[in-house]
Amino acid sequence: MLFFIAAYSFAQAPATQISNIGSGLSSMEIQNNEFTIAPNPAKNKLNIKLLNTSEDLKLEVFDVLGKRIYKGLITKLESSIDVSNWKSGVYLVRITDDTVTHTKRFIKQ
């Protein structure tokens, strides 16, 4: 769930509006310890380490607007993604098996 805040001023009384933009990622998905990502912030390479797995997992990376910019499979406990050509900003790493989705944020410098 992403929130954008926009401030407007009419005459001399400022007003604030909060818009809730859905990205398909719930706050419960973001709070987990099933995998780690490092370094965070990342400059050239993002390392992903799973605590355990018995199957191939779907890996997706989204920008903060919800656009998927990377899609792949994780087939081992430790993997890495080359992020050297990505724009600086905040990204969401989402790992999915048949039933569960885990999501974490990272910053690209």
TrEMBL record:
Chain ranges of the Secretion system C-terminal sorting domain: 38-107
UniProt keyword annotation of Hydrolase present: yes
Keyword Signal: yes
Molecular function GO terms recorded: peptidase activity
InterPro entries given in the database record: Secre_tail
GO biological process annotation, one example: proteolysis
Pfam family, one: Por_Secre_tail
Keywords attached to this entry: Hydrolase, Protease, Signal
Name used for this protein in its record: Subtilisin-like serine protease
Species of provenance: Winogradskyella psychrotolerans RS-3
Lineage of the species this protein comes from: Bacteria, Pseudomonadati, Bacteroidota, Flavobacteriia, Flavobacteriales
